[in-house]
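seq as requested:
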Amino acid sequence: MNRLLPLLFILLISGSIRQAAAQTQAPAVPTKVTAPKVAPKKIVPTQTAPAPVVPQVVDPSLKGQYEALLSKSKTYYTYKLINPARLTAFYRSVADSIRKERVSSKSAQAKITAQARTIDTLNSQIKGNVSSLESTNAKVNEISFLGIPFSKATYNTMVWAIIIVLALALAFVVIRSAKNIHEAKYRTELYEEVSKEYQTFKVKANEKEKKLARELQDERNKLDELKTRGI
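struct tokens:
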């Protein structure tokens, strides 16, 4: 859009130059324009059947208006003779387009600013949600044991370690108890065996003692009998 403004000023200056040149070279123009051969060529189509008129579609864009402006302007040597009214209308179109572009640019910039603020707000909300989620996950993954906070992994490790230690202690106690039971059973059997031997020895000793008592009594009786005979 900004490149067309210098072009418009150049066209205005060229139009003024062309008008001045046309005024200075006015006698030479009729000799070139009114050629005897040109008029019959232009009149011949009017004698034949008129061709159907096709409506010309005008491009409303600046490019289309510029091309229409050039096509409707006459050429004088290498210059274009542009109607000031058409040039003014084209200038107004360019100015309107530039104004619309500026308005749309301002509105787009305002939308971009609003969207940037919205994005900043959403980012702050996301950061708050992330921090709250992290704190919630930390609370969920945290277990308090005896007033001491532990993470779930540490708590699980500690619990399994306690379970393993208790299982090992139970296995040691069971093994130790089994050994003590076996030892007690062996001692009991040994005591019973010794007790039986003692009972047997006691019976034999009692019988022997009785036998010796009888023998002693016999000897005493014999001694008493000998004493009686000697008297």
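The helical segments are 4-24, 28-33, 38-47, 62-72, 84-140, 152-230.
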